[in-house]
Amino acid sequence: MKKYILLTLILTVVVIGPFVYQQWSEAKRLQHIRETKQFASQIHATSLADYLQQLKQMSPDSTQLLLFTGNTQAQLEPCGCFIGQSGGLPRRAEAITHIRENGFSPLLVDLGGIQPSQPPSMKPHSFESDALSTDDEIIMRDRQRVQTTLTAMEMMGYDAFFPFAAEAEIVQNQRVDVSFTFLDSDLTQDSDSYLIKTIGEKRIALVALDLKDSAEIASISKKFNSVMSEVQENSNFIIGLSHSPPKINRMLARKYPNFSAILSPAEGESEKIGDVLLAYCNSKGKTLGALLLTDGELNISSQVQQIALTEHVSDDPNVRKLLDDFYHQVATDHQLQTVSYRLFSSEPFEQEDKNSYIGSQACQECHQKEFTQWSHSSHATAFNTLRTVGREYYPECVTCHVTGSGYESGYQIGNSGREHLVDVGCETCHGPGKQHAYTPLKENIRGQVPEKVCMECHTPEHSPGFNQLIEQVMLEVDHSRPQPSLKQILEQRMRGPMKPEVELFVMSYCPYGVQAEQELLPFFEKYGDTIDFKLRFIVGKEETSTESGNGQIKFTSLHGEPELIENKRQMVIAELYPDKLFDYLLCRADHLEKAWVNCAKKVGLDIGRIAEAVDGKKITLDLVEEVQRTEELNIKGSPTLVIDGRIIDGSLWRGRVKETCR
Ligand code: HEC
Ligand code: HEC
Ligand code: HEC
Ligand code: HEC
Questions:
Q1: Whose CA is closest to 472, among 23, 17, 25?
Q2: Burial of 11 by CB count in 10 Å (0-12 exposed, 13-18 middle, 19+ buried)?
Q3: What local confidence, expressed as pLDDT, does residue 302 receive?
Q4: Whose CA is nearest to atom 35 of ligand 3?
Q5: Taking phi first (over 0 means left), then psi (-120 to 50 degrees means alpha), and beta for anything else, what does residue 67 get?
Q6: How many degrees, rounded to 5, is the angle at CA 661 between CA 555 and CA 634?
Q7: Closest CA to 630 of 548, 567, 562
Q8: Rounded to an integer, what distance in angstroms lies between the CA atom of residue 470 and that of residue 454?
Q9: Distance set, CA 373 to CA 281, 486, 488 (Å)
């Protein structure tokens, strides 16, 4: 007897063991990815909540506050590519509002560097095709970004702005309608080289500094000394706003110890030279600098922190609207949509003039295995991501979320003939494939994909931690990986900031659609709010013109009028009682031939309310949307499962659902 128990035990371990081990090691792998990414995306800054807590301990009467930004490069807001990303004008405005609500009236200063700048490797090439960007057009969109930034600063109530010498003229031309002071470090000119502002009882002087070397310090010494003594007489605190290099800032701090602080738009670690605080910014508006000035009985003290602007800070509605108006303009004006740089400019395959992009679909016929693996990866839904967040026409996003952007045969915004090049397709990693597809040789396609190809998109700015995870991420794009389960697909998608969007297309009277609901709904229910589930209906639409000339829309459904009505009912329930939809559907699945009211009553729905909405006007619009979505995705039968806009192969989820209504 004992022997049998032991044998069973050993057998169990042998059979289940590897499976358990695999699950365990996969869970560990995912955790490692998550932790590495989380760590890499951390930003050294204080959360707004913590900062407000600190302010509550202080009195606005004895403490003055100066908020500062610099080198924002007209970055309106972060791209949203990863969780924990910090920055953006709408959040900055919201943070300032909260600080004001705590009784502080901060001075607001921008230290310059407002113009967009691109890393040298991303500079536009001399495009030959006139379909691609010209410098003028790039400047047009950038100009609007600068204007939008200045307008947002005005809305936030900025006091002063100190543009870089190189951008002063351009920015002056964009001045829109702003009331804050533009500072200029040129002491020989009759311009504002300093500004004195009063907060409460105190006066704070802002002095513009732009000195290249110690010789320059010496040469302006006389003039500057007189400025400093003038400023000193009239203020309690003197703050330097400096475009000089750190070395010069230190020299200035030593030479003029009356500065409370010298602020620089560059990135760096804050430090103290004597009593003078030297402080820096985070580029691209990632954080909001906060300088606290206390005029104590014994001495003046200053203290600096960076405030994080992560997703925990909501958007100021007015600045949000300003940005949305700008995006709307780009969306509707083709001239604003030209790309300003392209990837892979040092890869030989991409520079080959005679080759061109043909799209991932064209590779499928010969590389089915690779295609299937790719189609379940998030690369295959990268453009859907942009559609979901409404940036599919915005060149600053499109470049990395499509195939071949910036190349003559690559994806082009607004060109409907290039729809097959959306997403991060085969040819982003393997290079343009037309020649290879016609004459399949190893020589005419990039067979080895070096890490640096990945890194063109997976930059530290857009994909922090990627460079530490090379082995892990290479594994994820390995075409010989086993088919993922539905659970694995969902959980992979949940690693990013976006919820996976799950759409189940059915006809409410289709027995296979109903089976699919029975199969899938209990599974999806477990994910609750972490997925974005939508039940969709496959209906037909006929437009008939009546005698009066008004077009009328008639909807049709494979299983006739009763099905159409049940579809409408389920749509109404999804909208009015989202929490009870699954219960209703599962009840209906068991009692489809009985009256719907039984199930409605059982799960506690208001029957009158549903019946009314089913006959309402809005339902027609909703049905039109269903038809559009079905056509857009080319959905043919019930049931069909779609995740992030891509149809999921039935073999991954159908279980006992063998057939399809079409
Ligand atoms: C007509 C069939 C066909 C089409 C279409 C096709 N390939 Fe191939 N592909 C092949 C064959 C055959 C080979 C193997 C060539 C060899 O070993 O000489 C190959 C090899 C490859 C390799 C491996 C090269 C290496 O160095 O080992 C890659 C990568 C590749 N194809 C990518 C693509 C991509 C991307 C597309 C779509 C743009 C595509 N293929 C379209 C037939 C095709
Ligand atoms: C053309 C730009 C581009 C290239 C090249 C590229 N990727 Fe990506 N990658 C993306 C984008 C965009 C996403 C996010 C897609 C989405 O969810 O919208 C992504 C997502 C991923 C993810 C999923 C991230 C996660 O945690 O959810 C992995 C893993 C990945 N890429 C690995 C790679 C590897 C490995 C390479 C090189 C062999 C590579 N990528 C090359 C643009 C690119
Ligand atoms: C330099 C290339 C690059 C640019 C430019 C870029 N992205 Fe991304 N994006 C990526 C990569 C890479 C990922 C995957 C990051 C990861 O998980 O490591 C990603 C992921 C995302 C995600 C998360 C998707 C998910 O499934 O959770 C969103 C949303 C996104 N990008 C939106 C945008 C928007 C909006 C813009 C323009 C403002 C933009 N991206 C510009 C490369 C880029
Ligand atoms: C994110 C980058 C990426 C994308 C997108 C991608 N591949 Fe690959 N592919 C690779 C990598 C990495 C390898 C392995 C190359 C190596 O060994 O260095 C590879 C290898 C291959 C090979 C060689 C044989 C094999 O299976 O390993 C073929 C064929 C291939 N890919 C076809 C495709 C096709 C077809 C698509 C689109 C459906 C595609 N690839 C999309 C990165 C990618």
A1: 25
A2: exposed
A3: 85
A4: 79
A5: beta
A6: 65
A7: 567
A8: 9
A9: 43, 13, 13
Q: Round to whole Å and give the CA distance between 63 and 106.
A: 10
Rg (CA), the chain: 31
Q: Which token pair is 153? A: 């600063």
Pocket test for ligand 1, best of 361, 367, 409, 423 (most atoms within 8 A of CB): 367
Considering every ligand atom shown, identify the ligand nearest to the alpha carbon of residue 407 and give its number: 2
Measured CA to CA in angstroms, residue 217 lies from 195, 255, 262, 363 at distances of: 20, 10, 15, 64
**What residue ranges of the chain have pLDDT lower than 50?**
119-134
Give the tokens for residue 497.
Answer: 């900031």
Q: Phi and psi dihedrals of 575, rounded to 5?
A: -80, -45
Q: Hey, what are 122's tokens?
A: 């991303």
CA gap 403, 385 in Å, rounded:
14
644 Cα nearest atom in ligand 3? 26
How buried is 56 (Cβ within 10 angstroms: 0-12 exposed, 13-18 middle, 19+ buried)? exposed
Instruction: Compute CA 7 distance to the chain's CA centroid, rounded to the nearest angstrom.
Output: 55
State how far the Cα of 210 lies from the Cα of 139, in Å rounded to an integer.
Answer: 26
Apex 622 CA angle, 620 and 626, nearest 5: 115
